[in-house]
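User: Before I run my own analysis I want an independent prediction to cross-check against. Here's the chain; please return only the structure tokens and, at the end, one sentence I can use as a sanity check.
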Amino acid sequence: LLAAVTSATGIVFYILEYDDALEFILIGRALDMIRIMRFFQIFRDVVRRSADVMPALRGPIILVLTTMHVFVYLGMALWGGAVQVGKHFGEITYLYDLNNFNSYAEGAVTMFQVLVVNDWHAIAEVFLFADRCSHPVIVNAFFVLANLIGVSIMLNVLTAFFVETFVTKLDDAQSGQAESTTTVQKDRDFTIMATDKPVRRVQSNPSIEEEDKAGKRENEAP
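Assistant: Structure tokens:
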């Protein structure tokens, strides 16, 4: 539904000759590819296993967020209000002075970009023009330490937990399916063995039956 609405919006914008019409159409087609993926077993398995894995990632995710929270407050203590947006236009990468620690929200965005390794060296360059604590040793030490702890350690721990739990869930599912198949096969083999045995009928001997009847009549006689 979202893909159809986005594509329809792009078509309407194209008719009205808006400049962003093509972008809406392309986004709608990209969203439609997600719907097509549900027809493939491998993609359904990946989504289902990922949903099973997510509860086990609560601890590592909280650890990563806590690390980011600590660095945000450390950055606010060093450069809170020290970066003037637009003051050093032309000396730093355009609009990168929006990445600062003037508030918690701006600091969280800044640290998120550092954690995803989005030009962290260009972000660090902004703080070389801060009103205080702008010495390269302080700036480089902060961002190198944030990159080392947040990316090289915490994100790798999160990735390792995800991969390990995903593989474990997948192995458990395959083992359970194999055991179920083995049990069904054993039951089938047992049924076949039980039904393949020939059944013998024991025929009665007429002479024995006549002797039994004669004995019963003699006993009944007075």
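Sanity check: The radius of gyration is 38 Å.
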